[in-house]
Amino acid sequence: MPQTIEGYQAWEVLLKLSEPNLSLALNIARNLGFDMDIMSELLPVGVWGMKSGLNDLNSSQNK
């Protein structure tokens, strides 16, 4: 669980995504007025986590 306001903001952005899309995540963060220096550090990690989780899910369903 996020422990900083920026972490909560990044989490808020990630929850708005219907798919792991970094450029969309950054656009959402920009439109919400979040600090883009920090979001450009946090959101790629969150999107990577989403992609990794989806890949794991797809792999387990294909077995």
Strand percentage lies at: under 5%
Oligomer: single chain
Structural class: mainly alpha
Helix content: over 70%
Q: What's the shape? A: elongated
Low-confidence stretches: none
> What sequence of helices (H) and strands (E) makes up the elements?
HHH
Largest sheet: none
Total number of beta strands? 0
Radius of gyration: 13 Å
Rounded mean pLDDT is 93
N-end to C-end Cα span: 31 Å
Number of helices: 3
Report on this structure:
The chain has helices spanning 5-15, 22-31, 36-61. It is built from three helices and no strands. It is elongated, with a radius of gyration of 13 Å. With 63 residues, the chain is mainly alpha-helical. The mean pLDDT is 93. It is 75% helix and 0% strand.
Give a quick rundown of the structure.
Helices cover 75% and strands 0% of the residues. With 63 residues, it is an all-alpha fold.
Question: What key attributes describe this structure?
Answer:
single chain; 0% strand; mainly alpha; 63 residues
In terms of topology, how is this protein built?
Layout: H1 5-15, H2 22-31, H3 36-61
Helix pairs in contact: 1-2, 1-3, 2-3
